[in-house]
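Methods — Computational structure assignment.
A single polypeptide chain was analysed. Its primary sequence is given first, followed by the predicted tertiary structure written as structure tokens.
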Amino acid sequence: MSTQPNRVYIERIDDHRNMARYYVLDITSTLFGDVCLTRTWGRIGCRGQSKTQLFARREDALIVFLDILRQKTIRGYLAPAVLDGSVR
């Protein structure tokens, strides 16, 4: 079992549609031994909204984490290094 938190930051930018959004997924442990999946999203440069889900097992949180990440990449979200063309 990994003790490192899982975190990903992705963006979706479309200048033609005046769209600049971000999405953050973060898995951490609570003081009570539960696993917490926090999602934060909004317009780049703004505070945005967040939602937190608690799980008894890290594996369950990771399944939801990967499913949300898959959905967002299908919708066009990418990591910032991929957006600026520095990583291929």
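Note: The mean pLDDT is 88.
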